[in-house]
Amino acid sequence: MLDERLINYIENSLKKHHDLPALSDYKGETYSYNEIARQILKFHLFYEQAGIKQGDKVALLGKNSARWCMVYLSAITYGAVIVPVLPDFRPDDLHYIVNHSEAVILFCADNIYQEMDLRKMPLIRAVLSLTNFQALHMDGEILADALKTADTHFDKKYAGDCIASGNYHFPDITNDQLAEISYTSGTTGVSKGVMLTHNNLSANVWYARRMMPLKHGDAIVSFLPLAHTYGCAFEFLFPFSIGCHITILTRTPSPQVIIRAFQEVQPALILSVPLVIEKIYRNQILPELRKRHIKRMLGIPGLRKMIHAKIKNKLVRSFGGNFREVIIGGAPFNPEAELFFRKITFPYTVGYGMTECGPLISYIAATESKVGSCGKPIDTLEVKIDSPDPLQTIGEILIRGENVMQGYYKNEKATADILDSEGWLHSGDLGLIDGDGYLFIKGRADNMIPGSSGKNIHPEELEALLDNKYAVGESLVVQRDDRLVALIHPDSEVVEKNKLSKDDLQAMFRHYLKEINESVPSYMHVTRFEIQTEEFTKTPKRTIRRHLYV
């Protein structure tokens, strides 16, 4: 158990940076640390008057916003358990999660609440709007009065400049207490509630404060889903704890909107999923590199260096020009794109994590990163490879330490399946650790395809080769009748812009398979492809539901 507490990080930051901007909705309102503290304390009084106890569950359902962050902070600093839910779930899934978590209060976006049925959530005693914190439902006069009188009670308890002077204290929340239940969407079966303690979250924030390049007063753009641990820990909790100004993209953003926000805000650190970086590489950089005169120039060392520098400078300006590094995580980074970014010395690094670790498992600064790796295991964890030779033989990645969850909420079987008696979390990911301690991810254990020659095939390697090809939106490689088949969903933007016919795509994809098969061992050869006219079915976290196509 760590000595550092998340509760102290939040309280100290609110007091130390009270007059600084804390949270802004992009193109919307800005709130100072002082204003955030006032709202948190008002909610504490509401919870207290409404009979909410420490350990009670507070469900939070809506898109990213400053008000979303206020609710999150109010719950965990009170000692309640926050249940952040991705807003893309279907109504039946939302009902299930709210009920399974045993939430008694629901903060909800108005448009989502209209699609839900309160009768299917019998434990919910109050529903508050994320738009204005007004009541959408109150179960009885006590709760209604608690909300109405929260301002009056606040004015009496925190008179004058009490908040600005820091004359307040949050409850004494110890690190062993449950802070959050994060429901994984999963690619199969029913969602599981990951129980994250204050210690798990503290471990992530403590590491980031020591090792990631952000400092007091820096600006950052938050566009990853805050209901997911990656965005929550590193675009919200960590920067908030050191006094950063966080600008939140309140709608699901396209890469174009994200880049526009970067240019306006000029963030000091950028966190991203590979999708954004790869789309820029595929749609903006590759078409330039494929031009005949550029290809000729790249063959001349002096000109190649000049072209690479020009592309790098353009990219740096696109990302705001003020960042120290780009941290990529949440999914594997395409090897071809990564090699190019390394060639032009773009300051990126790749990390690795999972919800069950809240989420961070490995990271290293961009200046020390290795191509193909996802950094080194962080110092609050032990990481090992379940393999007789972790340097050469791929094995499952096992994790133990401060970041590892308590287990799955009300699901002892699933907990026993992933956490063994010695405290090792079995990630389901396959990898190697090299002699320098760098971790390399090789795929998912449950995605691995046993080849007819006895050699295992990791379809992600083939998909990475396909996904960077012109007009390919995304792909899946599956096994059918002992043969590998590529399912390809074309890039609709490219198809429409260039008026590509089905015959054009067929010829193009046939050529791609020939190229790929020439570059991989024979046991990995893809025998044919099928064009997927519809986008692959995905989880709310945008992971392809692979089991539907296998």
Topology:
Elements: H1 6-16, E1 21-25, E2 30-32, H2 33-49, E3 57-61, H3 66-78, E4 81-85, H4 91-101, E5 103-108, H5 110-113, E6 126-129, E7 135-138, H6 141-148, H7 150-157, E8 178-184, E9 192-197, H8 198-211, E10 219-222, H9 229-241, E11 245-248, H10 255-265, E12 270-272, H11 274-289, H12 292-298, H13 301-318, E13 326-328, H14 335-343, E14 348-350, E15 352-353, E16 360-363, E17 376-377, E18 381-386, E19 395-401, E20 407-408, H15 412-418, E21 425-433, E22 439-444, E23 449-450, E24 456-457, H16 459-467, E25 472-480, E26 483-490, H17 492-498, H18 502-519, E27 526-531
Parallel strand pairs: 1-11, 3-4, 3-5, 5-6, 10-11, 12-13, 13-14, 26-27
Antiparallel strand pairs: 1-2, 6-7, 8-9, 9-20, 15-16, 16-17, 18-19, 19-21, 21-22, 23-24, 25-26
Helix pairs in contact: 1-2, 2-3, 2-6, 2-7, 8-9
- Write down the CATH topology of the largest domain: Rossmann fold
How would you state the average pLDDT, rounded? 91
- Backbone CA Rg: 24 Å
CATH level-two architecture of the largest domain: 3-Layer(aba) Sandwich
Choose one word for the global shape.
globular
- Main beta-sheet annotation: 5 strands, mixed
Query: Termini, distance in Å?
Result: 42 Å
Question: What top-tier CATH class of the largest domain fits best?
Answer: Alpha Beta
Describe the structure.
With 550 residues, this protein is an alpha/beta fold. It has three domains: 6-173, 3-Layer(aba) Sandwich (Rossmann fold), CATH 3.40.50.12780; 202-399 and 416-447, ANL, N-terminal domain (Rossmann fold); 456-548, ANL, C-terminal domain (GMP Synthetase, Chain A, domain 3). Helix content is 37%, strand content 23%. The chain has 18 helices and 27 strands. The strands form eight sheets. A five-stranded mixed beta sheet has the order 4-3-5-6-7, sandwiched between helices. The longest helix is centred in the middle third of the chain and has 18 residues, at 301-318.
